[in-house]
Amino acid sequence: MPRVVKRKLQKLRPIVEYNKRGKGIGQAHSEMQSYIGVLARSRVPLVDKKWSQIPKDVKEQIWEAVDMAFVVGQGGKKSVLTSAAKKWKDFKSTLTRHYILPYTNDKEKLSHPPETYKFIEKAQWDAFVASRLSKDFESVHSQHAQIREKLEYNHRLSRKGYAGLEDQLEETMPGVEIDLSTLWKRARQDKHGNIPDPKVAEKAKLIDELQKQVSEGKVRVDGSKDVLTMALGPEHPGRLRGVGAGISPRQYFNLPKPQRVSFDDRLKESLRVLLQEETNKMEAKAKEEALRMEARTKQLVEAEREHFLSQLSQLIPNFDPGMLKQRISQSPKNPMSDKASCSGGEVKSLHYEDDNAKNGEHQQEEEKEEEKRDEEKEEEKEKKDEEKHDDKVIEVGDYSNMEAPSSLKSLCRYVEMTLLPEDKLLQFTIDKEVFGGDRDTFLLHEDIAQFAGMEEIGATVVAVYMRYLHDVLKQANMCSMVGFIDPATVSANSGTIVERSRLVAARLQKTDGEQIFMMPYNPGLVSLGFCFYDFQ
């Protein structure tokens, strides 16, 4: 590539451009890839080894040469050496398919390197030919040939790749959305716009029909469930068709990456909400009980007053009960309260009516102040009780005398000796076949303590137990009979009822119609409910 060498001598370095997904595009990128191919063929020894076994100084020479000729930018050294590894491997494959295997019976042809690649040393060529004619390589070549035959829809892209094709279409088709299905179809057309392969042409026709239905609103696409997936079927997990290597579904569709911290925060928030709900219920119950006790106390005081007045009437001649009626009937104290007293106003109430008239107003003011102080002390006590309830820590307790299986005792011992001192979590991976999607979940030591103590458990514990049930069903070959729905996606704190309904519907649509589904859910109360869907 003399033009690249000339620019290097002039210290001119073209800038390599990249698209929004970090893939190289433009003329400078194409020239850089060609230059990397030249370096990989000419500077890397032709040996029967893997790229990882090539000396580091050789790789460093390739990177320095490319860095002197181009401003690589965000791709960096890693992308350059990755490209060099692929081109070196492709070069050896080209030599094998075109210059060795067709001439296995012609020793003269194999005795010297091809004219096109005169830079290959004779000793390296002879060693490479011998490795390619060995029985070990014949077995490996046969396996790769079988894998290659399974590829049905071969593209016709040049070195520009999908990134260059997308850049070209954006220039020639301004304002038109270039989706994966369009890129996949254009990558398999020849220079005249035709698709020679009948199988590919059939899929391209199906793509056109689906695109028309989407534009008319008859078919709806959502994220990875796009037109290309509808036409070709689901892709392997983690892979994506129509964009080239190095782009994952999460990167292309801007899917949020699950974070452990956010999950922990959500779990703690759920626990806090449940704790607050339980606290509110306890407070409401306590207030109701206090009102009931107050009403009962008034009845008891009234009965006691009537009995007391009847006794006075028998002991004192011409006794008028109306003389004490007004004083005694005023807001009696609760005999169950620690503030209740048998001294003070009750004794003074037996004095003559003229003494009450002098001190009545003063006593009423004192009673009001005393009641106010009582209310303030009661509120302060309730506040302290609430703070103690919020700061309550769930402990595993004494597991030695616990009547439980030895495995549960071992788990409690592990929580007490390891999880609590080191503030760790138990992590579980729930496979896609359990709830229809891969996800990780975590158990806190509080969850295990609640489970071991036969207390109320949360949805996370239920989800982990459902994973265990799935393993049992799998061993018994019964997974086709029973399915599960993740309680975290359908409980009251997991979004609106419309969103939860859609998640349930999406999960049920993935069944073959013969399964019974178990769906624990939290309707917003303390307890859990269970639904069973039987398609039969």
Features:
mainly alpha; three-stranded mixed beta sheet; two-stranded antiparallel sheet; 57% helix
Account of the 3D structure:
It is a single chain. Helix content is 57%, strand content 5%. It has 536 residues and is mostly helical. The strands form three sheets. A three-stranded mixed sheet has the order 5-6-7, with helices on one face. Strands 1-2 form a two-stranded antiparallel ribbon. α2 packs across α4, α3 crosses α4 and α17 packs antiparallel against α19. The longest helix is centred in the middle third of the chain and has 56 residues. Pfam families: Transposase_24 (PF03004).
Radius of gyration: 41 Å
The low-confidence runs, each spanning 5 or more residues with pLDDT under 50, are 325-358, 388-396
Order of helices and strands: HEEHHHHHHHHHHHHHHHHEHEHHEHEE
Work out the helicity level. Answer: 55-70%
Q: What class, by secondary structure content?
A: mainly alpha
Total strands: 7
As a percent range, the share of strand residues is: 5-15%
Note the main sheet: 3 strands, mixed
Biased composition (Basic and acidic residues): 348-395
Coiled coil: 268-306
Protein name: Non-ATPase subunit 9
Region (Disordered): 323-395
Provide a concise account of the structure shown.
The protein has 536 residues and is mostly helical. 57% of the residues lie in helices and 5% in strands.
Topology (elements, then pairings):
Elements lengths: L1 H8 L7 E2 L5 E2 H18 L12 H14 L6 H25 L6 H4 L11 H11 L2 H15 L11 H12 L7 H7 L11 H18 L11 H6 L16 H5 L6 H56 L6 H7 L16 H4 L4 H38 L15 H17 L3 E5 L1 H4 L3 E5 L1 H8 L6 H17 L6 E3 L12 H13 L6 E6 L7 E6 L2
Parallel strand pairs: 5-6
Antiparallel strand pairs: 1-2, 3-4, 6-7
Helix pairs in contact: 2-3, 2-4, 3-4, 17-19
